[in-house]
C-alpha cells in the first residue's frame, strides 16, 4: 500500500516537485526556498505524525528513477535534522 509519493521534474529550468501525495501518518513538507536562491534542489522533509497512536512506525523509502527527472536534485531528510541540543557539563 502506497502511503506517499513525491515526483520531482525540471520545470522552468529548475528542479520542482510536480506531484506530492501522502497519507496519515506520513507527511511531506516541501518548502519553497531552502538555502541560497541559486541552489537548484528540492528539499523534502518527511514527518511521521503518530501522536501517540502509533506505537512503532517504520519509514521505508523506495526511490524510483521515474520519480526524478533528468538533471534534478533532491534532498530527502527528516525534521529531526534541524533539532539542536545543548549539553552542559559541570
UniProtKB/TrEMBL annotation:
InterPro entries in UniProt: UreD
Keywords: Chaperone
The family this protein is said to belong to: Belongs to the UreD family.
Name the record gives this protein: Urease accessory protein D-like isoform X7
